[in-house]
Amino acid sequence: MRDPGDMPALFVQAWMARDADALAALFAPDADFVNVVGLWWHDRDAIRRAHAYGLRGMFSASTLRVGRVKRRDLGGVCVLHARMHLDGQTAPDGSEAGPRQTVMSFVMARQGDGTWLCVSAHNTDIVPGAESHVNDGADLKPADYRD
């Protein structure tokens, strides 16, 4: 890509086309991707395989949209934070899950030919009303410490 700021829209475009190859092509060969539950994929092929699996299954009927994007240019590196809106995920029981919002962080690096690739991505669910998670011995539960 010629402009690193195109990453969120290109990610969504590949997602909506259910094209894991196009999605993976946005990433450097040795890129890292951490998903919303902390699964960590360490290269482009692992990123492709993980998204192919999700786009065939739990996300096959989903809609992903980009919301607000914040950009920070750092010379040959650009950091993007993008609010994402997801609808239509399939729950494990086959029903439609409720909508989710996440913040995705993309670290983009300029390549020798002037194009840009993502070298690191991290997706974080937004949990309304929570400040952290607490491990109750069985599960992580959203927690709010405010009075």
From TrEMBL:
The DUF4440 domain is annotated at 11-117
- Quote the Gene3D superfamilies the UniProt record gives: 3.10.450.50
Q: Which InterPro entries match?
A: DUF4440, NTF2-like_dom_sf, Steroid_delta5-4_isomerase
Q: What name does UniProt use for this protein? A: SgcJ/EcaC family oxidoreductase
Q: Please tell me the species this chain comes from.
A: Palleronia pontilimi
Mind giving the lineage of the organism this protein is from? Bacteria, Pseudomonadati, Pseudomonadota, Alphaproteobacteria, Rhodobacterales
